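Researcher: Re-running this chain for the archive, since the previous output was lost when a drive failed. Same request as before.
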Amino acid sequence: KKSCYDPEKYSEENLKKREEFVEKLADIPEEDRYFLDETGTCLNMTPQFARSYKNERAYSERPTSQGKHYTTLGIIGKEGFVFHRSFEGYLNKAYFIFLLKLYIIPKFANTNKYLIMDNCSSHKNDDVINLLKESNVKFLFLSPYSPEYNPIELAWSKFKQFIKSMKPRCNFHLGLSIYSAIESISLEDIDGYYRHVNKFYIA
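Model: Regenerated structure tokens:
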């Protein structure tokens, strides 16, 4: 199977931004690094692989319609998930600001904790940046095209595999599956995710 990447990832400009990010991150103690990201789920998720008898194909049901889309936004630190929230639809700037004001800023204001996020438009915009500065929240944006720098990406991989194994087909079952998937991510998992991304922090 061929692995693809955006050639912009290795442009001179973005390589410089990656180096700058790693240099800034090096000044932040690991216990003060908190990574924020979101992922999506729906009602036709199913495992990609299954067991079958030798020389026989495995079959499984999968609805054509994915139903409603649900987004889960989370933040992990070395102590595990410090925040997660699931909601119908997709994240936009207005709802992200709502979550920041109500739940996230109270956890980070006037502390040494850094909120580290990617560059999607819901996160990186003047309104969010000004709000974080006014609230005395330390923050850092990942360099472009750098998901391998974000340990929560690995958490979301386990999260999605868990939900696929549950094969939720109604909103109630999906909600239970999302909660159980979050709970399935252990402190040992989180420690492994941090150690894995540390290998890529080479300035």
